[in-house]
Amino acid sequence: MSLFTRIEVQRLLRALIDGKISVIEPKFDIGHGFSYPVVVDVTGASDEVLEPILNELSSLDILTSTVVDNIAVCPTCGSYKLMMQMRCPKCGMPNLQRGTMIEHLTCGHLDMEENFGEGELLTCPKCGKSLRAIGVDYRRLSMMYRCLSCKGISPDPRKHYICENGHSFDEEDLVIKEIRSYRFNPAKRGLIEKELVDFKPIVDRFKKIWNYKTPAILIGQTGAEHEFSFAMWEKGKTDGRRPEIVANLSTNEKAVGVTDVLAFQAKAADVGAREKILMVMPKLDEKGKLLASSYGIQVSEAKTASELQEKTIEILKQTATKRDKKTLESEAKKLEKLLEEIRK
How many Å separate Cα 106 from the centre of its chain? Predict the structure, then answer.
């Protein structure tokens, strides 16, 4: 499926074109790592879904990106929740003792500071000589590590990591993930407008017949709030009245299925819509078509935004023609009834 047919991409592109978003800044979240809340709010998608989308839009130069931070993550699962464990660089065991050490320069003995005694009088535990002055016959080394297994001493222990999912790895395998901010590239406005499914030009062609809203958020009989790509009412009808037409866009990588059909039918039934149009990209599978037909849902299938607009306009034309025919039939019946009354 083309990147631009995805519903979350369409929502993001619309927000960029309308100026609702110009800069996408990362925000640290202790529960999820780095997040892009402004994009999550606009698209309704998760950060896991949005990250590759932002990267792909950046590769197309629709967004320009800048590295603003980095985060260490597990090389296996990408988790940033890591526990660091110090290990002996010689034997690999984790039972280390950390502290300040003293090196007796006279005999070369290196040991933990507490083993040389306390106070001002320090004695080498190896040769038994008293230490005279720091820098003369001994020196202090801070932040040293002694392995309690092999007795090895090192200023730089081996760093080992365990992630929240139990994956274990050394520092050299740690992945440093770049955290980026993104900015809309106005030079790509023309490209976006070609790929964006804009519903306003579709419904605006029928403004003499119907009032409309796009997008439309309607309250159903159950009290639930439902969002549609657009909704249309007979002229003179106001908010809260039963819509004559509701339409929704569904996309999928290969084909939209019965799940989307059922979800749309449930929403349309709750708001009491008379006519239902399901717009799908790139297509609706066979089971979905059968189900849509059984519910009286008209389907508009297309691979591109322009094709989808054309097919949806054609469905609305047919709906308008059917509506006019019903109106004429109704008026004819009224006239016939009136003539019968006159004859009596």
Answer: 64
